[in-house]
Amino acid sequence: MTVLAQGGATVTELSRKLSVSAVTIRSDLEALERQGVLRRNHGGAVATQVARFAPAFQEQSSVNLEAKQAIAQLAAQLPEDGDKVVIDAGSTTLFLARQLRDRELSLVTNSVYALNELVNAPRAELIVVGGVLFEPGLCFVGSLAECFLEGIVADIAFVGINGVSRRGISVNNALEAGVKQRMVRAGSRSVILADSSKLGMDSFLKIVPLAEVDTLITDNNAPRDVVDELRDAGLEVLLA
């Protein structure tokens, strides 16, 4: 993210770099300021000390921003009031947490960013997955987190990944793989959130075969041949 890389940036600069409106940039800066990632000033924002803790996550969150927001908006329509919902760590799932914060839900997450977003949620029950802190993503991983998730039975689990193909769902980081696998299996309905850049891709570690996933939500730029291939394999694919 430009603010972290340079220490600060203007709304105009961010709007031009990310190809989104100034209104969207201001909204995102306000949300990031609430999380303590940056501090807004006249015309832009500057990075805080906390922001340097996880620059990789912030860089990731600025990629395909509008697609991720659209995916999150569609995903937020799936839970019903009273549902138990698992929310994975990641940029798209963070946008989802923002969409769900005013709902009457039980929300389970391992993400520090999502926790910051949800801590004052007026009607939600917030359940924290503990474990070893994975600094680049500011999320909890490891055997403690995995054991905790094995005891969770949720109505729906939203999981972010790095690749999805006929071979299955895959991620780049071994430290997060076990947690994501158990999140998929914790939900009566498992929903993968992935922008179109991840479709047809196989990352380093396969966490589950395609048959263990119920739904994929992606954006309208998804390659039609890949979407058709995934649907033919039995996966429900929703386009945001």
Describe this structure in words.
Strand 2 (38-41) and strand 3 form a beta hairpin. This protein has helices at residues 2-6, 11-18, 22-34, 55-61, 65-75, 91-100, 112-118, 143-150, 174-186, 224-232; strands at 8-10, 38-41, 44-47, 84-87, 106-109, 125-128, 132-134, 139-141, 154-160, 163-165, 168-171, 187-193, 205-208, 215-218, 236-239. It contains ten helices and 15 strands. Helix content is 38%, strand content 26%. The strands form four sheets. It has a seven-stranded parallel beta sheet with strand order 6-5-4-9-12-14-15, sandwiched between helices. It folds into two domains: 2-52, Arc Repressor Mutant, subunit A; 65-239, Rossmann fold, CATH 3.40.50.1360. The protein has 240 residues and is an alpha/beta fold.
Secondary-structure map:
Elements: H1 2-6, E1 8-10, H2 11-18, H3 22-34, E2 38-41, E3 44-47, H4 55-61, H5 65-75, E4 84-87, H6 91-100, E5 106-109, H7 112-118, E6 125-128, E7 132-134, E8 139-141, H8 143-150, E9 154-160, E10 163-165, E11 168-171, H9 174-186, E12 187-193, E13 205-208, E14 215-218, H10 224-232, E15 236-239
Parallel strand pairs: 4-5, 4-9, 5-6, 9-12, 12-14, 14-15
Antiparallel strand pairs: 1-3, 2-3, 7-8, 10-11, 11-13
Helix pairs in contact: 2-3, 5-6, 6-7, 8-9
Number of strands: 15
What pattern of helices and strands is seen along the backbone? HEHHEEHHEHEHEEEHEEEHEEEHE
Strand content: 25-35%
The appropriate CATH architecture of the largest domain is 3-Layer(aba) Sandwich
Named CATH topology of the largest domain: Rossmann fold
Radius of gyration, in Å, reads 17 Å
Mean pLDDT: 86
Provide the helix percentage. Answer: 25-40%
Q: What is the general shape?
A: globular
* Number of structurally distinct domains: 2
Main sheet: which strands, in order across? 6-5-4-9-12-14-15
Would you state the CATH class of the largest domain?
Answer: Alpha Beta
Q: Give the termini separation.
A: 24 Å
- Low-pLDDT parts are 1-7, 48-55
Major pleated sheet: 7 strands, parallel
